[in-house]
Amino acid sequence: MNKGRIVVRGFVNPHVKYSPADAFQPVVAPITDPELLTSDYIKHIEGIVKWIKSPTLNQNERIYLAAGFRKMGVIAKYALARKLKLSFMGKDVEMLRWQMAQGEQPSVDGDPTHVLGFKGHAIFPDEIIECPLFPVFKQWFEVAEAIHKYTCKQLGVEFMYVEVSEKGGNQAMYKVLETGNIINARYFDNGMR
Fold first, then answer.
1. Neighbouring residues of 31: CB distance < 8 A, sequence distance ≥ 6
2. Across all residues in the chain, what is the average pLDDT?
3. Domain tally for the chain?
4. pLDDT digit string (tens) for 101-133?
5. Which of 81, 144, 161, 174 could cysteine-pair with 72, CB 3.0–4.6 Å?
6. Rounded Cα distance, 77 and 79, in Å
7. pLDDT at residue 7 above 70?
8. Residue 172 belongs to some domain of the structure
9. In a domain, 160, yes or no
């Protein structure tokens, strides 16, 4: 009898080391050059979360990394959508960047309101940054960034930065290549250029 002992179903001892190849089995190789991406490749990325073999991960790794991989799949889904919401895609890419940077938002041009990284609800704890699967996660994040750049090129825009509002809020800002205007992604989604 296990009196006084709590058993969490599916929990793996965090001290047991595993190979990233055991935990993550991709069906395509990572492509980080936006020029080499195709819609068929991006369709594969939609199912990226299915490539994780959860029994090898501990509970925190499943919570943080599986959620991050799921977000990468959603980014791929945005890229293939008929009515793309650029604001959602930019937010998700930059939120992953913020989580991986453990809450850091470096300025892109010296202005503290022009940063990389979209504040979210939880950063990756040290345990996740140090786990065997994290380098693989970072590599596939570069694929998500490439998908974002690929989509921006298709739309004639370029991601510039996240604008941090004094009122508390973040907005993904893009440069419209045709006009040179820098606009909020929500305005772009609504047809303003």
1. 37, 41, 143, 146
2. 87
3. 1
4. 999 999 999 999 999 999 888 899 999 999 999
5. 144
6. 5
7. no
8. no
9. no
Q: How many CB atoms within 10 Å of residue 20?
A: 16
Q: Is residue 76 part of a domain?
A: yes
CA 167 vs. chain centroid, Å, equals 25
Please state, for a pLDDT cut of 90, what percent of the chain lies above it.
66
The parent domain of residue 146 ranges over 20-155
The sign of the dihedral angle between the CA atoms of 191, 68, 54, 23 is positive
- Spell out the SS3 assignment of 88-118: HHHHHHHHHHHHHCCCCCCECCCCCCEECCC
Torsion of CA 175, 181, 187, 191, to 10 degrees: -100
**How many CA atoms does the CB half-sphere of 80 hold within 13 Å?**
18
Bridge partner residues of 116 (DSSP): none
Going from the C-alpha of 96 to that of each of 5, 68, 120, 125, 158, the distances in angstroms are 36, 7, 9, 13, 19
Residue 11: the pLDDT is: 43
Residue type at 175 in one-letter notation: K
Contact 186, 87 (CB under 8 A): yes
DSSP string, 122-153: -PPPHHHHTSTTHHHHHHHHHHHHHHHHHHHH
Amino acid at 107: S
Which residue type, as a one-letter code, is found at position 115? Answer: V
Is 191 part of any domain? no
